[in-house]
Amino acid sequence: MNADPVRSILIVGGGTAGWMAAALLARRLERQPISITVVESPDIGTVGVGEATVPAIRDYFRAIGVTDYEVMKATQGTLKLGVEFRDWAGPGSSFFHPFGLYGTSSRGVAFHQYWLKRRAEGDASPLADYSLCTELAMRHHVMTPPDNPPNELGVFDWAVQFDAGLYARFLRDKATRELGVKHIEGLIVDTSLAPESGNIASVTLGDGRVLEADLFVDCSGFRSLLLGGALGVGYQDWIDWLPCDRAVAIPSEPDGSLAPFTRSTALPAGWQWRIPLQHRVGNGYVYSSRHISDDEAVAALRANLEGAALAEPHLLRFRTGHRDRFWHRNCVALGLAAGFLEPLESTSITLIQSGVERLLALFPNQHFDPALAEEFNRITMLEYARIRDFLILHYYGNGRIGEPMWDACRALDLPEALAHKIRMFRSRGTMVRYEWESFQDPSWLSMFVGLGMLPDAYDPLADHFSGEQLEGAMLRMREAIAKTVALSTPHAEFIDRHCANRQG
Known about the structure:
Helix content: 25-40%
Distance between the termini: 54 Å
């Protein structure tokens, strides 16, 4: 039944994608006679600008047998409770996208419906007042989420912010020293295809070595050396929906405030990220080259640094979108070789993670049944599209009037799935959920409300409770959150206690 199993896997490219794939494949296939090799060139640098993640990353840590604190100590990491958005809804505006719930639901009605009812009755308390995660973040405090929270008020999660280069090194050491992964350094100069099947047969290195394998995993970055190059798989460009096509990154000295969140600040031609780590702050300007030059973008980022620059600017050009297929013949692409959805919600690393998990769930034999690749591609395309739509909402809902890039974003012709989501929410706060959503209702709610895209009405079932009853219940929620926050720990103190990297 399991004839001709895969016996060798060659991962082309290291970096975050290559070593995440290597570590998880090796862990999950550890009792099977499969050799796993990573080949990478020391002369080809990695992008290394994505330093923030989403909470799913902690599932990956558990899957490869490491702890959150172990990773954070090795990578100068910090906690991330969500993303703060400044100036997106207009200059001077600010809101937070938390990794947690808002309020408590009742009688099958979501909390935000009761909040909308009270708002219509004159209650001006912000939705954020009912998010424990937001309250913690804004005070630069953290705490460990309870295993069994007493109610929805206590439901939140956290992710990790880290140095991407140190993270790849940590995974490389884990994979090669403990999980049996082979590591080869060399520059690939040629790829050979099998004449009958068209599958990849081998790659040739600059020194003449030939590396063969049954399954090839393309982690070669934007070059997509195998999937895009050798196999000629095309690319779907989403520049018409997501306007930014370049980024510049400059690390800077820490300023002493260790915020447990990523900050995204809208600028005239894009947005700036700020990611605080233990040893430095990651900064970058993601921008549209049609609205600002590279030199102007570098100057704008330098002017916005809160500490002295620690390196020269690193420029990155990209095309938002993905390959027409992610798995073709005996090759699966991960990371930038598969696609790129810009770092606005830190989804690049989670797409690598889900891609490896999906490959394991559909793991082939040497015959590479096309049905497996078809299902892999179907799900992955849906996942990319769902994230794309969430990112488009950020741009479409902006309130930056009179700036050409942002004005054009508000006039976008939206994908129908996203347009339907917006119509339903604006009608009476109804949340629409599709298959393979990476971001759930609370995330969408934070963006809708933060960007001022409020509904015209609320769910009539919320009228079960009177305004007076809701006022009392919501006051008790705010008090419960305040009491919980009072028990939390400053982020810097938490890091020092559990995962400080004292190597400098």
